[in-house]
Design goal:
By secondary structure, the protein is mainly alpha-helical. The protein has 18 helices and two strands.
Length: 427
């Protein structure tokens, strides 16, 4: 007897109801924890850091460990328990793994370490560094460094499962939690590799510009051809890497990589190479097209002084923001609208293109709601979005809201097994 999940009220009613609920939950929790008008008002840091690590830890729990050891609990109990565990592990990862383990070697990954150094005061007879900037509310460099680690991890952890079919851990006779920990270890090694190449050089440049020297760290090797040495160049195309990867697993239903009949790891390697190419092209198209609807003269006028009138950094980061507006559409379409398409065969190329175009249309609509209708200001309370459109584009931080919005959706699908929006049927 197979256990099948069915939408409680049919489609599209179940999809509409569930996503309205997710939006309201996200909006309420945003007000409670992040909105400057709310009781906690932790915008943007450390709120951003915690929400980023929450998703990463949730991915470990569900995708790698298969919800072990709570997989046999019934929803909603399982969801509540896994959420509590998630928050405990998030605290441990940030305050122990990053601040007190990795932060011993990479000091830019330890906010508490930097604060301790500042509190200790100058060392007699030694040149002192101005650490105050690292603890200013508007900077919080170590917390930002952790977010850049999670940015890399949003791709480098799940791509082992999605593109490589869990190779080399699977196939094997490993059971949980051994299999899950093996995957976490393997993917963490890959994450550290990507982080060292793509992120650490930026922090080398930050240290050099702040203190005059950072001899132990590299510098942005992409500055010459990218037009900017800022890490936002990485954000621009790496965020599209995340989108293409999860589009593959969601509304694309593993197309086009399902055409590759080679065994692993060759299938994964080929898929990875083409994912990089497709993602970079998507980001580059955004960089070229953004000036078509954004008044670049006004944007340039409002750029931070450090950009010296060069809008390249803004364009690459905004390319990442554009990508972020696909998150809710493709996740909702797959998980709560069951990949609906007018074609009888959901796996056909016609259905593939129907959902792809549909996600892009919804991306445009949600982008307009956030920036032009200015939901970021009146809905989320982001104070620096009160100005004209050019100012909103520069400091809207829509990626933060889009990732926060998907947490209720992912938690319900991962931990609550779609309760109460779906019901179990035995066949």
């Amino acid at each position: 007897m197979a256990d099948v999940l069915k939408p409680r009220w049919g489609q599209p009613a179940t999809g509409i109801i569930s996503n309205v609920v997710f939006f309201l939950v996200a909006w309420l929790t945003w007000y409670l924890f992040s909105d400057p008008r709310g009781p906690v008002a932790s915008w943007p840091y450390p709120f951003v850091m915690y929400l980023a690590v929450m998703i990463l830890v949730g991915l470990w729990q569900h995708m790698f460990l298969g919800d072990w050891p709570f997989q046999n609990l019934s929803p909603p109990v399982r969801g509540v328990v896994e959420t509590i565990i998630n928050l405990i592990v998030v605290w441990f990862v940030i305050h122990v793994i990053f601040y007190r383990v990795l932060g011993l070697g990479f000091n830019f990954l330890s906010q508490s370490g930097i604060e301790s150094a500042l509190a200790a005061g100058p060392v007699k007879g030694k040149a002192t560094l101005d650490l105050a900037m690292f603890v200013e509310p508007g900077r919080r460099f170590a917390e930002r460094a952790i977010v850049t680690f999670v940015l890399i991890g949003f791709f480098s952890y799940p791509f082992v499962t999605i593109l490589f079919g869990k190779w080399p851990v699977r196939p094997s006779d490993l059971t949980q939690p051994q299999a899950g920990f093996a995957e976490i270890g393997w993917a963490s090694l890959l994450t550290l590799f990507f982080y060292s190449v793509l992120i650490v050089p930026f922090w080398g440049a930050v240290w050099e510009s702040s203190f005059g020297t950072a001899i132990g760290l590299g510098r942005p090797w992409w500055a010459g051809f990218a037009g900017t040495g800022h890490v936002h160049w990485v954000f621009g195309w790496w965020e599209w890497m995340v989108i293409v990867l999860f589009m593959t697993a969601n509304v694309w239903r593993m197309k086009p990589w399902s055409l590759i009949k080679l065994p692993q790891p060759w299938k994964g390697i080929i898929s990875f190479i083409f994912t990089v190419i497709i993602s970079y092209l998507c980001a580059l198209v955004c960089v070229k097209l953004i000036p078509a609807w954004v008044n670049m003269e006004e944007v340039t006028h409002h750029l931070p002084a450090a950009d010296a009138g060069n809008a390249t950094r803004f364009l690459w980061y905004h390319a990442a923001e554009v990508a972020g507006f696909t998150l809710v559409p493709f996740l909702a379409w797959h998980h709560y609208f069951d990949d609906m398409a007018p074609m009888a065969d959901k796996d056909s190329w016609g259905a593939f293109w129907f959902r792809t175009i549909g996600v892009l249309v919804l991306m445009v609509i949600t982008y307009c709601i956030y920036y032009i209708i200015n939901f970021g200001y009146w809905g989320l309370g982001i104070h620096h979005m009160h100005g004209e459109l050019a100012e909103r584009y520069i400091s809207g931080e829509s990626l933060i809201w889009n990732f926060w919005f998907i947490i209720p959706l992912l938690w319900n699908e991962w931990f609550f097994h779609k309760w109460p929006f779906y019901v179990h049927e035995h066949h």
